[in-house]
Design a protein that fits this description.
The protein has helices at about 15-20, 65-70, 85-90, 100-105, and strands spanning about 5, 25-30, 35-40, 45-50, 50-60, 75-80, 110, 115, 120-135, 155-165. By secondary structure, it is of the alpha+beta class.
């Protein structure tokens, strides 16, 4: 864990609305030979089924979707404002077309079951424990539907946070 220390999740003080909604995060899955990451600004952190969890949402056309589907683990990593352009690139370019690691100059780390990046300030390593596509028939607030003009409903992934890492 070069440059990171493991943290006790219950002792972590953070503002999830700003952390996810404003600062964004990278969702990364795969292995040393083949991985991909994408920027996300929708998700959540909390407790579910008596476990610390992270919840993220991925549309099926995203390249990262394939990686999260075929792997048991993913990471969520958070960065300071200095990396905003890199996060923008990871949210607007596909790993099918661009080597995002080279384009962002991020340094991948492979010492956990899911890759993450040395440039992150905070990382949650997550084990998938549930996934399901959002069902438009379950939207109580029908205005939510405006996020799905193409019918490309997100798949929700609930990951048990198995480790939290913070930049030393």
């Amino acid at each position: 864990m070069s440059g990171f220390k493991e943290i006790i999740l219950k002792q972590l003080s953070l503002e999830p609305f700003s952390l996810i909604g404003d600062s964004w995060m990278l969702i990364t899955s795969g292995n040393m030979q083949d991985y991909n990451m994408m920027t996300a600004s929708w998700g959540g952190l909390g407790v579910l089924w008596n476990k610390p969890v992270a919840i993220c949402f991925i549309r099926p056309q995203r390249y990262t979707f394939e990686f999260v589907e075929r792997n048991d683990y993913f990471s969520l990593s958070f960065y300071n404002e200095k990396y905003r352009d890199a996060l923008t690139l990871c949210g607007t370019k596909s790993g099918r077309d661009v080597n995002k690691t080279a384009a962002t100059n991020f340094t991948p780390v492979f010492d956990e079951p899911a890759p993450y990046f040395e440039e992150a300030d905070l990382v949650f390593v997550c084990q998938k424990i549930h996934s399901q596509f959002l069902d438009p028939g379950c939207f109580i607030d029908k205005s939510v539907e405006k996020n799905y003009n193409n019918g490309d409903y997100h798949k929700m992934y609930v990951g048990k946070i198995i480790k939290g890492l913070k930049k030393e």
